[in-house]
Amino acid sequence: MAYAWMTTDGIYCPRNVLLDLLQAAKFLKCSPLAESVFDCLNDHKYFSELDAFACFLDALAKDNLPIADMMLKRVGKAFLVLVGTKEYQDLDVSSLCDLISSNGLNVQSEIEVFYSALVWLLSDYRKRRKYIGRVLSNVRFDMMHPAFLIQWVDNVEDFQRDLADEIRFSLNNAMITQQENFGEILMSNYFEHGERSWIRDPKCPYGKDLDSDGGCEVSTE
């Protein structure tokens, strides 16, 4: 295919062959071909977020870590779709942490990132319990609504003790951070880790709750 690229005006390259073509370009030291492949990988119109995740897995299998890292950052809008897949649950801890720490995740609330972290941990808890602290450190608990944090302090008792302890520790730290930086958080000017790429799905059954302030109306009558 690399030869065809050199001898014709243009070629069609299947998505699952792009990394092989990139490797060929590297072997041939053909920078124009490599640039052409990178253009395809970065084309959001024809190379979707799901394609990027598939390419990430392929790059990981081929030990092409720079490309794997680049593709993982492209997941964005497909994140919530991927959470329920076996491929997501089979991610190694480094890839999982790189993914959920990304500012480019398209989520409706940081709560969704928290639940996604739990999905990964609980899918193979016996082997992954040693990663609890590392994984939860990438969840931005201080961006969650205070009412949710308080509610979850009681809910953690349903989990294994070591997981419950780590979650409770993260929740308490988040509440302290929110209290210390109440003014800045209220004005959306303070978040230690930066923002996410927030989205709203009109069909989301809990979307109304996300947009509410979690309180009730105050009346003097």
UniProtKB/TrEMBL annotation:
It comes from the Eukaryota. Pfam families: BACK (PF07707). InterPro entries: BACK. Residues 55-154 form the BACK domain. SMART domains: BACK (SM00875). Gene3D superfamilies: 1.25.40.420. It comes from Drosophila rhopaloa (Fruit fly). Signal peptide: none annotated. This is Actin-binding protein IPP-like.
